[in-house]
Amino acid sequence: MGRKPVAAWGRFGASPPLSPSHTLALLQREYDSYISELAVSAAREHLAGAIEQARTSGEPVYVTRRGRRVAVIVDVEAYDSLVEAAEDGLDEVELAAARAEDDYVPWEQAKADLGLV
What we know:
three-stranded mixed beta sheet, 3 strands, YefM-like fold, 5 helices
């Protein structure tokens, strides 16, 4: 008798290919492992731990009430970065609007007006 054929995935101890629904379930579980949620009642008891988790992982910890997100705990550096990015985005929008209305002072002129040149 000859040897039985072995699928390539079985030869190396790998798992067999998954159906799309199984793949989606695995991806969702993997995604959920990165998303931290904590009920308000648990947050009262574990606030220090939640803050430490957000600080060390760099990922937000969502605080929920009745299954709905009501607050978020984030590392201060991540928060500052988000605020800075939002402010930069608003500045760009305001500058574009001012240029569209021809209502701005070019940087070189502003420096000259302030005696910085």
